[in-house]
Design a protein that fits this description.
With 119 residues, the protein is an all-beta fold. Helix content is 0%, strand content 52%. It contains no helices and 11 strands. The chain is globular, with a radius of gyration of 13 Å.
Length: 119
């Protein structure tokens, strides 16, 4: 049984930083692309970043967010710096076979964690 368990998130002021973590079990971690998506009320779930061997980022977070993975710990991270109120959303980690931005190719999802950035 595959599980992706997220931690991190919370409330932070604009300009602050947060780090999200996602620990996986039940899959061959280093064979999967790991990604982060986010969803705010009334909006579709959107791509934030992914990593297979190198990171890929949405334009809205490039230069502020860093995705990384530790294959020995089956964990993917999202370091979020210079946070803005528009980054407020529920954040989800995901695992899939391809390094793509389309959420439909991701087979497994974490439970979600809320990030709120106050102005």
């Amino acid at each position: 049984q595959v599980q992706l368990v997220q931690s991190g998130g919370g409330l932070v002021q604009a300009g602050g930083s947060l780090r999200l973590s996602c620990v996986s079990s039940g899959l061959t971690f280093n064979s999967y692309t790991m990604a982060w998506f986010r969803q705010s009320p009334g909006n579709e779930r959107e791509f934030v970043a992914s990593i297979r061997w190198s990171g890929d980022y949405a334009d809205s977070v490039k230069g502020r967010f860093t995705i990384s993975r530790d294959n020995a710990k089956n964990t993917v991270y999202l370091q979020m710096n210079s946070l803005k109120p528009e980054d407020t959303a529920d954040y989800y980690c995901a695992a899939g076979p391809f390094a793509m931005r389309d959420r439909k190719v991701y087979n497994y999802w974490g439970q979600g964690t809320q990030v709120t950035v106050s102005s």
